[in-house]
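Protocol step 4 of 6: structure prediction from sequence.
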Amino acid sequence: MKKTIQSREFLRLTVAFGEFVKVRNYKQGRSNLYKNIITEFLIWLEQAGISRIQNVTSKESVKYLEYLSSRPKKRGNGILAEKTIKLHLFVQGLFQVYLLENKEIQNTYYIPSITGGTQKPRNILTIEEIRLVYEHAENEMEKALLSIAYGCGLRRSEIANLDLKDVNLIKGMLVVRQGKGNKRREVPMSDTVLNYLTKYVRDERPERLTGRNQNEEAFFINSRGRRSTGENLNEILNKMIEQTGKFELVQKEITLHCLRHSIAYHLVENNAGIDFIRSFLGHTQINTTYIYAIQNKKRKPVVNF
């Protein structure tokens, strides 16, 4: 990888960002650590054929994290430590704050996160892969599961706790009564999602309760007519993915939570409004929009969904 920036525009941004960091008094010792981190990012962009910051998309952001995850250390042996990669992500969040405040960009791009001791971005499905999984759903319950996890962006625990009364097919609205932090939220359903859920509730769910407890409140019920657990629902998703026969998709190790990340990614790609995304996913902060309270020096740009 080359060591210097070629573009005058990118050189200007590195200098301006360096001043931004100093004015905001972000602690980085006596070095220009944050500026150097962004310099490396901009050099990588140039090598990827991008010379304007406005042209950066979520696709490049994910590829850059893949690059960081395999980059050798500049000193010593081995690749970058996870804490170093997280620092790069943090600084990219600050960089986006600078870009937005100074109107260098109009829309943010998705910055993936790393968790659980792994050095790879959370697995995200493309639109085409989402469609492929839908095509291999064997029944209305499986299509409804995809629609709740991806189309409504619910967490696994929220899906498992969902009751029939929480899904208003007339108003096209789904209610999460106790989300993360015991927060209640309402999630709008698209016509496609509404269609799949209606078919499940009208045709298939009653069959699953035949000869069993007709008063079961759970939206998703297992073969015994009882509430499905999050683990069981993940197993159903894994079966659908395996049935696609697509090796690359199976290797992604997709879970229900990955579908939530996928819809967040796609909303940002389609320039959905910040307030809508925050409300849709039930977040006070959301990593795909990088909106922070500037005075809070302890803020974290990467937020777990």
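Step 5 (inspection) to follow. Confidence is low (pLDDT under 50) at residues 116-120, 285-305.
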